[in-house]
Q: What sequence folds into this?
């Protein structure tokens, strides 16, 4: 019998089963794996429990696969956002100080300093849901309920003018009907056809071009001037 199963037995005897919230099936799985282990070469690790896989397997795909059941309006998202997100991302997602900007920036992608936000840049709404569910609020990740995440996603859609009605309820059924403004700027890698003329049967592998001419170095060009200590930017 594995140590874990024995521990589980002990925990049950002591009446503290709650500390070992492992289902009987899981315990049986571990025992079965232990039995098989002696015949394997390395005998390292054990089969992941269904509970463990479930806890990690939270990704949401653009086609909606992985979305949990839930719902939320922008109106409710507003309340959560002000309490848990605005301190860093600003009340309207405009970004407080130098924290990330989540809204605005429409039409700036071709500008010198593009504002790459959810509304101006992100092609898929699923990334918004997945990111918040996985990583936010910063420092207290995985603390939000599914309904909270739907509501926050709806709020960010509203701040980016993608939905107009703050009472619109986002849920797992209508989620994929929302189209992101910049979605069409992303496309499948088409180099195989678009760059066909570069594909040769015998590609050059040696001395293919002359030495490059260095026109500037990052230090002197100062790629990230801060406006104060850096050189003046025209
Ligand atoms: C303590 C500050 C802080 C709080 C509070 C916070 N965030 Fe963030 N957020 C960040 C930082 C920092 C990043 C960038 C992390 C990175 O790039 O690794 C980020 C990134 C994001 C992004 C991705 C932005 C992008 O363009 O890459 C989203 C969406 C987001 N946060 C939503 C939220 C929501 C919703 C909440 C509230 C539930 C929240 N955040 C609370 C600091 C915070």
A:
């Amino acid at each position: 019998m594995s140590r874990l199963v024995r521990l589980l037995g002990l925990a049950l005897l002591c009446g503290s089963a709650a500390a070992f919230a492992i289902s009987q099936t899981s315990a049986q799985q571990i025992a079965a794996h232990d039995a098989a282990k002696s015949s394997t070469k390395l005998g390292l690790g054990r089969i992941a429990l269904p509970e463990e896989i479930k806890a990690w397997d939270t990704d949401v795909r653009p086609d909606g696969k992985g979305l949990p059941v839930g719902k939320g309006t922008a109106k409710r998202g507003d309340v959560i956002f002000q309490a848990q997100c605005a301190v860093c991302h600003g009340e309207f997602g405009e970004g407080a100080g130098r924290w990330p900007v989540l809204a605005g920036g429409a039409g700036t992608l071709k500008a010198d300093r593009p504002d790459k936000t959810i509304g101006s840049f992100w092609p898929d709404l699923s990334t918004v849901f997945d990111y918040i569910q996985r990583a936010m609020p910063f420092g207290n990740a995985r603390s939000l309920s599914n309904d909270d995440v739907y509501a926050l996603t709806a709020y960010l859609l509203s701040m980016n003018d993608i939905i107009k009605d703050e009472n619109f309820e986002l849920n797992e059924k209508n989620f994929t009907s929302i189209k992101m403004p910049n979605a069409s700027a992303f496309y499948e890698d088409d180099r195989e056809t678009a760059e066909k003329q570069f594909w040769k049967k015998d590609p050059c592998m040696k001395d293919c071009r002359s030495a490059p001419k260095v026109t500037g170095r990052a230090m002197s060009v100062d790629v990230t001037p801060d406006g104060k200590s850096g050189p003046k930017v025209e």
Observations:
- The pocket of heme C is lined by residues 84-85, 87-89, 99-100, 102, 128, 131-132, 136-139, 152 (CB under 6 Å).
- The radius of gyration is 26 Å.
- Residues 3-56 form one domain.
